Amino acid sequence: MRRKFVGLGLALSLAAVFATGCGSAQGSVNASAAPAAESEKEAQGDKEDKTIKVGACVTPHAEILGQIKDNLAEKGYTLEVIEYNDYVLPNTALEDGDLDANYFQHKPYLDDFNKENGTHIVTLAAVHFEPMGIYAGKSSDIASIPDGAQIAVPNDSTNEARALLLLEAQGLIKLKDGAGIQATVLDIEENTHNIEIKELEAAQVPKSIKDVDLAVVNGNYAIEAGLGEAVAVEAADSLAAETYANYVCVREGDENKDKSQALKEAILTEEVKSYINDNYKGAVVPVF
Fold first, then answer.
1. CB under 8 Å to 37, separation ≥6 — which residues?
2. What gap in Å lies between CA 122 and CA 105, rounded to an integer?
3. 163 class by beta-carbon count within 10 Å (0-12 exposed, 13-18 middle, 19+ buried)
4. 5: three-class secondary structure by DSSP
5. Mean per-residue pLDDT for 123-134?
6. pLDDT tens-digit series, residues 178-226
7. What's residue 48's pLDDT?
8. What is the mean pLDDT of the chain?
């Protein structure tokens, strides 16, 4: 997902409407029609309850969900994936009850969204991590970069910190102690190669790769840009992986519902893990 926190300032007003059928003690009741209507209503309810609607971004989330349709069908469920191109509607649709779950976001984004919008969405299962990678530009690898090399990084706070932590892990810079996931270029304490950090909007970083020595690119943008293999990536056990894993999420209180548990069991399988590893070549990494 493109990981930029969004503050909407929405004021959600949820109304619970109960449709109640009442029979008068003084009136007559059609004994045959009432049970039939009730039976039809129950049948419709059962049918609806067997459809799991999940909102997701197209790549890689909807693609991954596509791999579990057969698994869920064997359990009697129909998976319906609704694709979104933004990071707002999947949460508002889930909160409003139009979705049973969504799959597109990491927990820091979710926490911020809930806080800003008064929503009640919780994590159900951590599925994957989209590691940032260092990609070769003018320099073929990390060891060959010249003094004064330019390295492009995303300029939003979340991804810039991740990029700097990755550069530090590769020995290119050293950050101040404790900078962590809040790190900025001002936290660079040692820079032996006199590297120039070029801050760009995340989607523009892969487009600049020919103009810089190295570029630190988000996994989803690397996939979309068709970049080759990264010269280095965030480790699956890194602070970033722990913090920015992408989750299947549900409304608070729905965690233990049959549909939620069926969805969780279907996606946390060896088959899904193999699909991710085989198809995304390290640009998407399973975390289960």
1. none
2. 11
3. buried
4. coil
5. 94
6. 999 899 999 999 999 999 999 999 989 999 999 999 999 988 788 888 8
7. 53
8. 84
Q: Where exactly does CATH 3.40.190.10 map onto the chain?
A: 43-130+244-286, 133-233
Q: Is the peptide bond before 60 cis (omega within 30 degrees of 0)?
A: yes
Say if domain 43-130+244-286 classifies as CATH 3.40.50.10490: no
Rounded distance between C-alpha atoms, residue 233 and residue 263, angstroms: 30
CATH of 133-233, one of 3.30.750.24, 3.40.190.10, 1.10.150.20, 1.20.140.10: 3.40.190.10
Q: Are 91 and 6 in contact (CB under 8 A)?
A: no
Structure tokens at 178: 């404790």
Question: Which of 250-268 are b and which e, b meaning 16 or more Cβ less than 10 Å from the residue's Cβ?
Answer: bbeebeeeebbebbbebbb
